[in-house]
């Protein structure tokens, strides 16, 4: 069974999570970054995992565009969805629901909330200022949940 992990990342946290997930999934898994790949032939894959991160309350624009463009074929595949965000609990669930269309959420084999990071080294001045004001965070912080990534991989495995 061939698996494609397709993700969008801005500062690298989603890439880190997608790479960890690919290692957990095994040998027939291929990573696609929407930052560098535009035309992905998803018809070659039995399983599609889509992931993105939240910035200013919205999922990565390239992830949204990819889903909108491929919604019909995605609805026919074994799907997994994951989100990287700094919230936990109900707020993280709300962001997940807002990030992915209901039709995919309802058919997905696995939903994943992988946590996230604020990496001040990779942010511009405005992004840092917003994070400091809104999240009340003054320095880089990571709350990636590797246990959630492993549990997600287990659900997605054949």
Cα end-to-end separation: 8 Å
- Which blocks of ≥5 consecutive residues have pLDDT under 50? none
Task: Give the SSE string.
Answer: EHEEEHEHHEEHEH
Please outline the major beta sheet: 6 strands, mixed
- Classify the secondary structure makeup into a structural class: alpha/beta
Oligomer classification: single chain
Helical proportion, percent range: 40-55%
- Could you say what the CATH architecture is? 3-Layer(aba) Sandwich
Draw up the topology in text.
Blueprint: E1 3-7, H1 13-25, E2 29-33, E3 47-55, E4 58-59, H2 61-74, E5 78-84, H3 89-99, H4 102-107, E6 110-113, E7 117-118, H5 125-134, E8 141-142, H6 146-156
Parallel strand pairs: 1-2, 1-3, 3-5, 5-6
Antiparallel strand pairs: 3-4, 7-8
Please give a structural write-up.
With 158 residues, the chain is of the alpha/beta class. The protein is 41% helix and 23% strand. The protein contains 6 helices and 8 strands, in the order E-H-E-E-E-H-E-H-H-E-E-H-E-H. It has helices at residues 13-25, 61-74, 89-99, 102-107, 125-134, 146-156; strands at residues 3-7, 29-33, 47-55, 58-59, 78-84, 110-113, 117-118, 141-142. The strands form 2 sheets. Strands 1, 2, 3, 4, 5 and 6 form a 6-stranded mixed sheet that branches. A two-stranded antiparallel ribbon has the order 7-8. It is globular and about 45 Å long.
Brief write-up:
This protein is α/β, with parallel strands linked by helices and 158 residues long.
């Amino acid at each position: 069974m061939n698996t494609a992990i397709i993700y969008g990342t801005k500062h690298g946290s989603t890439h880190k999570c997608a790479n960890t997930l690919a290692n957990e999934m095994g040998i027939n898994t291929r990573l696609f970054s929407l930052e560098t790949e535009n035309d992905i032939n998803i018809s070659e894959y039995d399983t599609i995992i889509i992931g993105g991160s939240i910035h200013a309350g919205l999922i990565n624009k390239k992830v949204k565009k990819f889903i909108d463009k491929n919604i019909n074929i995605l609805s026919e595949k074994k799907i997994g969805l994951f989100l990287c965000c700094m919230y936990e609990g109900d707020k993280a669930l709300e962001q997940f629901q807002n990030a992915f269309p209901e039709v995919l959420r309802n058919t997905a084999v696995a939903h994943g909330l992988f946590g996230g990071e604020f990496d001040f080294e990779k942010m511009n001045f405005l992004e840092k200022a917003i994070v400091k004001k809104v999240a009340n965070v003054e320095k880089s912080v990571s709350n990636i949940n590797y246990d959630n990534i492993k549990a997600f991989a287990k659900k997605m495995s054949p």
